[in-house]
Amino acid sequence: MLRLYNYFRSSASFRVRIALNLKGLPYEYASVHLTRSGGQQFAPEFRALNADALVPVLDDAGRVLTQSLAIIEYLEETHPQPPLLPADPVERAYVRSFALTIACEIHPLDNLRVLRYLVRQLHATEEQKNAWYRHWVEQGLAALETRVLAEGRSGRYVLADAVTMADVLLVPQIFNARRYDCRLDHVPTLMRIFEHCMELQAFIDAQPSRQPDAEDN
Asked: Mind listing the pLDDT tens digit for each residue in 190-199?
């Protein structure tokens, strides 16, 4: 069975849980608590799996994979149904570009280790840390909203009426934006897509509050 090392609040882990659920793949949930005991991701046994000390990590019968998008693409290649990437190369590039904007432009500025550095090394206050988070998330989502409207490709989801990797990336980012009280009224199209996604059981079951380590926060 697949084994997923992850943390309930990690948006990168959330992405992989959604993809696994969409593809109907059972997996063993291995919790790596990012804030307990100084961060379980720094334990030697976990660093042996991922020297970067980041979640998620997927173990497929001893084949260890890191980085959420690489894991999702691996699942797409090994379990192609239902597809999370469209067949058309232009549409496939569009979906990947949308997903990468979240994974590479928004998320890295606001993940846990960056926020910790702001507080512990740069001595930012809690208010300043949250302002940093909201600035980059709100700006990044606004750019995606503009792009989705300009492209005219959206329907129930980012690409027409089929769930793709773009939606898999969008939903966790909206969850985190809500957690930090980000403004979201400026991205109505993204929020409409989010609400449609959250009608699907695969997204519902993957959300942080449904995970076994959610009570250990």
From this structure: 999 999 999 9
What is the layout of strands, in order, in the sheet containing 2-6?
A: 27-31, 2-6, 57-60, 63-66
Distance CA 40, CA 129 (A): 23
Neighbours of 100 (CB within 10 A): 14
Cβ contact 5:32 at 8 Å = yes
Please state the pTM of the whole predicted model.
Answer: 0.96
pLDDT tens digits, 57-87: 999 999 999 999 999 999 999 999 999 999 9
Superfamily of domain 2-82+203-216: Glutaredoxin (3.40.30.10)
Question: Which class in CATH covers the domain with range 89-200?
Answer: mainly alpha
Same fold, 2-82+203-216 and 89-200: no
Cβ contacts of 155-160, under 8 Å, gap ≥ 24: 156/193, 156/196, 157/193, 157/196, 157/197, 158/95, 158/98, 158/193, 159/86, 159/91, 159/94, 159/95
